């Protein structure tokens, strides 16, 4: 069974097993992305830690935010924060690269050392199961462009969402991360 199919079944099962109550038991750590090399990147590997998941694009006008995300990774990584970039072609096809070339461009142009996934759809109707889950959790706060940020709490719940225009180093993002890191 493919990773995406298994995750879709988790979401469907949660909905069929008792509505909202069952859906609440689904956590971000139930989902798996693919690495640029094609291997699995399970969010369960980061269970118990806050995770900032951001849809990225190396050719986007907001690509400078990759540097801000790296700043967060450098500043808070030792305290437990994981930053994960999710390159997406969904908004103006501003991610023209594929596979390891995306990570190489992000490293070369913005100093990125945090994990990046393989190119992934984040917009409906083809959205990855993580993004379907996040949309169900916060329907009014779905990605409308590149660099939409989801902050996952230590318990795997969706703690906050930040629109594209909110810079990674914005005080609202920093406060959200600090609160998530402060959770026991």
UniProtKB/TrEMBL annotation:
UniProt entry keywords in alphabetical sequence: Oxidoreductase, Peroxidase, Signal
InterPro entries the UniProt entry points to: Glutathione_peroxidase, GPX_AS, Thioredoxin-like_sf
Superkingdom as given in the UniProt entry: Bacteria
Enzyme active site: 60
Record Pfam families: GSHPx
One GO-annotated biological process of the protein: cellular response to oxidative stress
Protein name: Glutathione peroxidase
């Amino acid at each position: 069974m493919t990773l995406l199919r298994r995750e879709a079944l988790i979401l469907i099962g949660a909905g069929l097993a008792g509505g909202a109550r069952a859906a609440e038991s689904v956590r971000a750590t139930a989902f798996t992305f693919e690495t640029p090399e094609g291997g699995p990147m399970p969010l369960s590997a980061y269970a118990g830690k806050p995770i900032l998941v951001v849809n990225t694009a190396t050719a986007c006008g907001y690509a400078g935010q990759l540097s801000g995300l790296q700043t967060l990774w450098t500043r808070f990584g030792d305290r437990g924060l994981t930053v994960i970039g999710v390159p997406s072609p969904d908004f103006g096809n501003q991610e023209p690269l594929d596979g390891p070339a995306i990570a190489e461009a992000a490293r070369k142009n913005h100093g990125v050392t945090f994990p990046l996934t393989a190119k992934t759809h984040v917009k409906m109707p083809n959205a990855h199961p993580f993004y379907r889950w996040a949309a169900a959790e916060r329907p009014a706060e779905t990605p409308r462009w590149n660099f939409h940020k989801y902050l996952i709490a230590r318990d795997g719940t969706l703690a906050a969402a930040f629109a594209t225009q909110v810079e990674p180093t914005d005080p609202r993002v920093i406060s959200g991360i600090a609160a998530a890191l402060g959770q026991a």
